[in-house]
Amino acid sequence: MGQRHGGKTAQAWAALGGAPELTDRIRYTGSQGLLPARLPVRDLACATVACCALAAAELTARRTGRPVPAVRVDEGAVATAFVSERHLRVDGRAASTFAPLSRFWRTADGWVRTHANYPHHRERLLHALGLPASADATAVAAELAGRRAEEVQEAVYAAGGLAVAARTPEEWAVHGQGATVATHPLVTRQRLGAGAPPRRLPPLTGTPLLPAHGLRVLDLTRVIAGPVATRTLALLGADVLRIDAPQLPESQDAHDDTGFGKRSTTLDLGARAGRTRFEELLAGADVVVTGYRPGSLDRFGLAPEALAERRPGLVLARLSAWGDDGPWGGRRGFDSLVQVATGIAAVEADADGTPGALPAQALDHGTGYLLAAAVLRSLTEQTETGDARLTTVSLARTARWLVHGAAPDLTPAPADDGAYDPGHHLRTMDGPAGRLRYAASPVTFDGGPADWATPPGRCGADAPRWRDG
Description:
This protein is of the alpha/beta class. It has helices at 6-15, 41-64, 75-81, 84-87, 119-128, 137-144, 149-158, 169-174, 176-181, 225-235, 252-258, 272-282, 304-310, 335-341, 344-347, 362-385, 395-404; strands spanning 26-29, 71-74, 89-90, 93-94, 104-107, 110-114, 163-165, 188-192, 216-220, 239-244, 262-266, 287-290, 315-320, 388-394, 426-431, 434-439.
């Protein structure tokens, strides 16, 4: 392994259960000094992408019978991909990102951050604050200025909305959820059930080498982190079918960023017909990835243990904002809110004390690449031992790793050398939404794919079936 990012890469690969000697296959290239921040965001970004690419190379070796291909991580490609949503253009139009009510607000005793990108979250926020549906940012600012941050946080949560009081890392460490997160590793991996035979994967032939070819993935994720993971599995050849609830449609802009290589459908799991169709899909699935609040899917029979019982040998990957347990284990959350709660916004604050933010939604993107890597590693392990596998990650765990788990980098990050041009890492493709300009995947290895095979379609427009079904 090249000297850059060696500590973070070794930590992440160890958390994934990988053989340490395989990291010697990784080399870092390209401009340095990108994704500048007080915290080691550059190291986190490059390490998570490197581990994902290495896991793909490892599975490729298992399916070809050859040595593990070399992995080369281009730092410019990583920096571009970690802000892929900012680079996206649809017929020249920039994608919508944060809504006007998704921002920091001054309170009587500090700061609070709200998230109101989805219409139902905006409605709940305004309801919690006692404001009319027509209220704008000026009205919200006036209301919040006289209230305490913690009181706002709890009132909005009780109404089903999203708001988090800003904390320092020290305050988060003694908070109930912060203390709970600290008891868990970066990645939790376990076997479920017993008796499933080793997975048999046919040898790979032709080019490019697609280690996930022939595998079927049910994608029950939203926003960025989970879709980044499944977008990566699609790049590597998997048949990925995203499933959303018909009453909670995803933003088309978000899907145009993370829907490459996938198909997208809707199923009402609360209806008998929807549950029946899901069970038919599950019977042919190899992987299920979920990104909802812990326990929120259990009523549909989608708890990991229940899924593994019905589909022995399944690979399960589960993502959440705050983790599976603790006082906030059942709460919704997004990257921007986790940054605020865990003290990242305080570390990155402006000179006047205004909370700051990372140069990318790095918790989302980094956790997404870790989750994809964990799926690939589970598939590799199953070729020897069989049995279902469950991987659990959370944005809060990744935040803790960023703030507290930093190993000294052997090569301190210099300033941007001026050689970085994001245009070198952007591609174009025509799709149902129009002509897309998008960030290329940074997950590369010798002989692997250079791009996705298909563009994103219309969100929810595909039939609920497998490609060859």
